[in-house]
Amino acid sequence: MTSVSVVVPVKDGARYLGELLDALSREGPDEVLVIDSGSADDSVAIAEAAGVRVLEVAPDQFGHGRTRNLGAQSCSGELICFLTQDATPCPGWLEAYREAFTLDPRVGAAYGPHLPRADTSPMIARELAQFFATFAPDGRPHVQRAGDASFLSNVNACYARACWQEIRFRDVAYAEDQAFGVDLLAAGWTKVYHPGAAVLHAHDYGPLEFMRRYFDEYRGLRETTGHIEPLRLGGVLGLVGADLRWMSAQGLPPGQRARWTARSLAHHTGRRIAAPVGSRAGRLPGPLRRGLSLEGRGDGTAPPATGEVPSGTPVRPWGGRKEDYMEAAMVRAQGATPLLDPVPGMADAERLRIAMILPPFRRGSGGHNTLLQILTRLERRGHVCSVWVHDVMRMHQSEWPGVLRWNLREFFAPISSPVYKGFDAWQGADVAIATGWQTVYPTLLLDQCRARVYVVNDHEPDFYPASVERVLAEDTYRQGLHCIAASPWLRDLLIERYGASADAFRLGVEHDTYQPRPIARREDTVIYYARQGTPRRAVPVALAALRELYERRPDTRIILFGDPTPLETAFPYEHLGVCSPEQLSWLYSQATVGLCLSLTNFSLMPKEMLACGLPCVELAGVSAESIFGTDGPLELAELDPFALADALVRLLDHPALRERRSLAGIEFVASHTWEHATDEVEAGLRAALALREQAWV
Amino acid sequence: MSSMERADGPPAAAELERLRARVTELERELIEVQARANAAVAAAQERAYWLERWHIDLNALMRKPGAREFRAILRAVRAVARQGRKLKRRLRT
Question: B34 and A353: CB-CB below 8 Å?
């Protein structure tokens, strides 16, 4: 007769352990092994009193998969049964398992039903009965093969040693049995559901605990089988109805039925909420994950067991950002999609078909504001425009195109073009405009284009340390696209460093908003655009400069804005957070000196400050100098806290100097309008078409 | 001037001119069609904003079993309500 070992992992399982071991002694396996992982109750004493072998492991070494592997290793039976500490075998349990392994030559595992205990709640009892009935509608054992349900439960299961040795349990924190079921069928083994191999077992918790348990279960399922539970609240009433019918069939008195109906509603609603959340636990912060887990599971599995080769956790494909790089790889491998033949005179056509390809966006994005300010004006000039959002980081995964359009209009400018997400409806264009490095590669793959243009807002490789992103961003300038750069400095850089063909445009200012407001200008206020999450803003040096300023002039009022979170500083300041353009114009009109630094292309903000008559300090030796000159509206300083503090003090201490810079600033930016920027961009688009025509001739 | 140029020159130039004019006309048509299509899509996106915001696909919804019957019932109820209101107005006047 086939030898059978039974392994029972235990932790604080005294409540049912005695009953379980009594049932096992009746069933008569060859060996029983209890593995205790730090019980504080009498579990170990109960097991020893029953005369079974006890193996103790440290609680932090416990893992559902690894501890069962240890159990299988530590026993000798040809069949290895696993029971949980609260699963009591019913009479005939062991014989049923022995029979199961005779039903097919490749049976690797068998499992049986979980019967409710007398005090099990009706919704759990109904669910268990109906769930297991699906595996054997005729009440007979069934062999399951590849393509059948992969369900397997270590509450009550039995494995052929040869199968376990081949597959072994994954070292996962949860659902190791489900993973084994998948792996077993994939490896060509079969499994058997035997209705006779039954145990009494049911978890009963309060509604909240049930939610946390479902959170754990579905989190484990996602990690092991890749299952993602959809979010749907519908159907709860149907389940409550099923519970009601079950209670009625069981003859529960009306009072109890009413009480359990309320519980049933809470239970099923809780499950509908907790299950999808568990499936998406990876998106939750670590402490929240741990808090929601009934088992207190944090971020990972337990540390590797000592003396055992660590086994990895298989991860199924999910998410991934392959398209970021695959499009670049396709361009590198096979080149850009050929352009359409030019049509004579197309550069001078009155109306052009313009497609603007945008990267994902957030409210307040300066680059998107620039692009859409220009696009609205191109629309008004009669060009036929469309917007294509390349959702490379899946930031807009749950947003449909109409919502994207609404947001673009609300966040940036009132475009009238349609907005598409992805390129499934691509219809060709006279000019396709790439607008960020991520959009260049998909733009190069678009067909039915007469020309492609690259509106370059900044030198984006500088946004990254050594990385794939940096390399790919640099390569975008070498793809033969005609560039329209957001400053002469940037244009020259593209030409000199990358050999690109390039024009330039000057960022416009919304003069209706940014103008000197009727408010008295203070004499003591320095405002600083402190975007800590943007490294090119040189925040650490600016904060050091402001500290130096505070030490020299403790009465100076310092205001930080632009970041929703207050920054940690060594000087007192007022935190304004993110402000609207209207609020900013009033702030710029009242402040004494502005500080806004950029280590790459200068931003719009200094221009907006200047338009409100606010003199400001910028970095010398970078782009601002080439735009504004060395002694124009800006007070320039080296990237050094003391030099920047000197510049701030100069402006604060010398009203005449402030006045001169202020007037020069207002005069300088007066001609910088979005209409003018659009003229320059439109000229760039036509230049790209003309270049194409020239190349054709 | 060679005999070939004398024979083919003027007709070829005319043909070229005719083709250029045709291309210009087709280009103009393309722009018009594209402009109309863009305007229609933009208007549809404007109208469907709240449906899209709540991820409601009316086509998919109407494919569900019982959707047509539900719509027919709604229409019937609306028709009855309209008739009722009309009758009320008549009785008042």
Answer: yes
